[in-house]
Amino acid sequence: MNAPVILITASSALADGWADSLGLQDALRLPDLAALNRANVAADSLVLLDLAATAPSEQDMQQACQHCRVLALSSLPRDEEGMMWLQYGAAAYAHAMSTPDLLQQVFDTVQSGGTWVGRSIMQQLCARFGRQLPARTETDWRSRLSAREQDVVAALREGRSNKDIARQLDISERTVKAHLTSVFQKFGVEDRLQLLLKLTGR
After folding, report:
1. Are the C-beta atoms of residues 129 and 198 closer than 8 Å to each other?
2. pTM here?
3. For domain 122-199, is the CATH number 3.30.360.10?
4. Cβ(5)–Cβ(28) under 8 Å?
5. Which of 25, 63, 31, 26 is nearest to 49 (CA)?
6. Domain boundaries, the chain
7. Fold of 5-117
8. 25 Cβ contact list (under 8 Å, min separation 6)
9. 93 φ, ψ to 5°?
């Protein structure tokens, strides 16, 4: 059974767009986070939150993110804002006017228990967690990888994109993707952030 879905925005046009894109015509609609926190909603609810709808208090943000899976959707996305929402516990940060296909991808990722962020924030998170990788465990994970896979992971730890890794290692982006796919399979993860979190023991 799917979790209940709640749309929080002051814009009926935006709520209608989200509902149409995701097939959520029966979703509960609320005006702001304070109303969500006052409502008796299921703990596993998915909340699509228009960040332009309100200026929530820090307490409302924390409470919502602890109680529900929040998709923070901004009309003017900024990395700093995205990082703040992730620190509060949001499950996603994306553009409020995302294409229907992208919005569906974000929604599906969160609904399946994952976290979704854009490329720029992903690179920042990878760099942050990559720097935290303890030296004593390097031999543990390195022994599971080929020399070239080790090079790719080392570049990934610096927060580099596939294109940057390809340029640095003088290989194609397709080859970088193939190495990453192999590394992900070896560690049982689905993406670069999950890999770095696993390698840092989080």
Report:
1. no
2. 0.71
3. no
4. yes
5. 31
6. 5-117, 122-199
7. Rossmann fold (3.40.50)
8. 19
9. -140, 120
